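Record 1 of the preview.
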Amino acid sequence: MSNAETEIRETTKPVTDDGDHDRFAHLVLEGYTPHGGEYVPIGNSVVEGMINATPVQALCGKVWVPGRDPQKYPICPTCKEIAASLGWSPS
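->
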């Protein structure tokens, strides 16, 4: 049997989403205020997203339409790490 006739099959386990990302409260940067300047919005606000069912993007990259009470969930560890690297103090 030649190499051309040999078929090698690689079996991989499919990557599935276990839903853990939905068990966190995510941090969203809605805008910023430059030194000595006025507030500059950079995306949809969480409140706007809840009212208008428009998606927002968390610091960790998750995009979703907010619709639940974030006080009931712990802060996303990735969002928290990114916020800390920016000098914020997420609690």
